[in-house]
């Protein structure tokens, strides 16, 4: 069983829409949860991280962790064409394990 | 500028011809790692190095070697490349592994093995 599962999409939304991305993970011992963003022809870069359960907000981005259901979410409000990228969830124990990534296109 | 630099960025080679992908970081990071990225499979770890003295296999080490002779460099070696090693490769580094250590990635090396 993979440590983290992510729907690969792709996802296409109009500008201004809310983007919702989700992952599930297998090991209840995971404590650190991250979202990386990867633009085309670039390496991934850390977007947000959350420790344990709860929400974390950064501008238009909100990361949620529900440890009871082992579910990780990323929401993008008022999406912009510049948000078009692949988003990878990751869980961190002694190493990072990545989801497959969801490719998001925000149409102007 | 803080960065992870990989070379070459693009490479086409033939089966069995040894090649090396170099990786260098200028952030004085202890931890370095190599990943390959394939459609539908995401990022899979090939090898990692906790520091210059400790290197270990990741999830998909077969067909690869690494070397960590100095802190800043972590080359990936394909002794006898095969077509199933056609992929996009990323080198990454962080201050330390585990916990919330942010990984900094290079821009990737796209390798095609014919």
Describe this protein's structure.
The complex is a heterodimer of chains A (108) and B (114). By secondary structure, chain A is mostly beta strands. Helices cover 0% and strands 57% of the residues of chain A. In chain A, strands 2, 4, 5, 9, 10 and 11 form a six-stranded mixed beta sheet that branches. Chain A is globular, with a radius of gyration of 13 Å. Chain B has 114 residues and is mainly β. Chain B contains no helices and eleven strands. In chain B, strands 2, 4, 5, 6, 9, 10 and 11 form a seven-stranded mixed beta sheet that branches. In chain B, strands 1-3-8-7 form a four-stranded antiparallel beta sheet, with no helix packed on it. The relative contact order of chain B is 0.32. The interface between A and B is medium-sized, with 23 and 23 residues.
Summarize the structure in short:
With 108 residues, chain A is an all-beta fold. Chain A has strands at residues 4-6, 11-14, 19-25, 32-38, 45-51, 54-58, 61-66, 71-76, 85-92, 96-98, 102-107. Chain A is built from no helices and eleven strands.
Structural descriptors:
heterodimer; A: 108 residues; mainly beta; 6-stranded mixed beta sheet; 5-stranded antiparallel beta sheet; 11 strands; B: 114 residues; 7-stranded mixed beta sheet; 4-stranded antiparallel beta sheet
What helical percentage do the residues of chain A reach?
under 10%
Proportion of strand residues of chain B: over 45%
* Beta-strand share of residues of chain A: over 45%
Count of extended strands of chain A: 11
Find the biggest chain interface.
Answer: A-B, 23 and 23 residues
Unreliable stretches of chain A: none
Query: What is the SS-derived class of chain A?
Result: mainly beta
> Helical proportion of chain B?
under 10%
Categorize the overall geometry of chain A.
globular
């Amino acid at each position: 069983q993979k440590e983290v599962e992510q729907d690969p999409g792709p996802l296409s939304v109009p500008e201004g829409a809310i983007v919702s991305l989700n992952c599930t993970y297998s090991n209840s011992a995971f404590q650190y949860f991250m979202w990386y963003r990867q633009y085309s022809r670039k390496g991934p870069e850390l977007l947000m991280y959350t420790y344990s359960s709860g929400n974390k907000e950064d501008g238009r981005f909100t990361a949620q962790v529900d440890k009871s259901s082992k579910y990780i979410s990323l929401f993008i409000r008022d999406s912009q064409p510049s948000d078009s990228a692949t988003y990878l969830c990751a869980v961190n124990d002694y190493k990072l394990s990545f989801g497959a990534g969801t490719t998001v296109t925000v149409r102007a | 500028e803080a960065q992870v630099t990989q070379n070459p960025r693009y490479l086409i080679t033939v089966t069995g011809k040894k090649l090396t992908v170099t990786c260098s970081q200028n952030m004085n990071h202890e931890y370095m790692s190599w990943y390959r990225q394939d459609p539908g499979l995401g990022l899979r770890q090939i090898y990692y190095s906790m520091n210059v003295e400790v290197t270990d296999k990741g999830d998909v080490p077969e067909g690869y070697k690494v070397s960590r002779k100095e802190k800043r460099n972590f080359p990936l070696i394909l002794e006898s490349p095969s077509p199933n090693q056609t992929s996009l490769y990323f080198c990454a580094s962080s201050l330390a592994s585990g916990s919330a250590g942010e990984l900094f990635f290079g821009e990737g090396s796209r390798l095609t093995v014919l």
